[in-house]
Amino acid sequence: MQRTSFARMHCSLARGLDVIGDGWTLLILRDLFLGLERFDDLVANLGISRNLLTRRLTLLLDNGIIERVAYARRPLRHAYSLSPAGADLVPAILALTAWGERWARPAEGSPMIFVHETCGQPFEASVCCSACGRTIEAGAVRVLPGPGGAAKPGTMVLARRLLQRANPDNEKNTEGEGTA
C-alpha cells in the first residue's frame, strides 16, 4: 500500500513526517545513531526486508537525513551515518523512546539505558522549554499563529482557530491568512 504524501501540506509536522514518519524509518535512524552502519547489520537487527530497507535508505539519502560512504569496492558496499539533519532527529527519537518506556515497555524491562556523556548519569529524555529549561507538558502549552501560517491543506481549520484565539475581538478575519 502506498503512503499518503504530506509534502504539500502547510504544516511543518506534516512535511517532516513525509520524510521520517514511518516506523521503519525511525528504527533505521535509531540504529544508525546506535552505531549500526552497514546494510546487512540493519537488515539483521530490524528484520526488515532488503528491498524495504533500500527504499527507506534512498528516501533518507535523497532528503539529506543520512550520508553514505563506500567502504568496499568489490563488491561495492556502503556504510551509512546520520547527517547533521539526521543528528538533529536524535532528541525526538529519544523522546519517543521515553514515551515508549512509560507506556509500552516490554515486560522484561527496558531494552536500553541512555547515559548522558556530559554528566555520566542515566537519563530519560524530555522536551524542555528553550527559554526557562522546564519540562514541557501538554497542559502548559499555548499555541499562537506563526508568521508563515495560512488556511491551507494541513492547517485549514487550525489557522482560523489560532487567529481567533489570538484576536478574539476580530471575528471578521476568519480566512486565516498570516496564521498558524
TrEMBL record:
Molecular function GO terms recorded: DNA binding
Annotated ranges, domain HTH hxlR-type: 11-108
InterPro entries in the cross-refs: HTH_HxlR, WH-like_DNA-bd_sf, WH_DNA-bd_sf
Pfam families: HxlR (PF01638)
Keyword annotations: DNA-binding, Transcription, Transcription regulation
UniProt keyword DNA-binding, yes or no: yes
Record's protein name: Transcriptional regulator
Origin species: Zavarzinia aquatilis
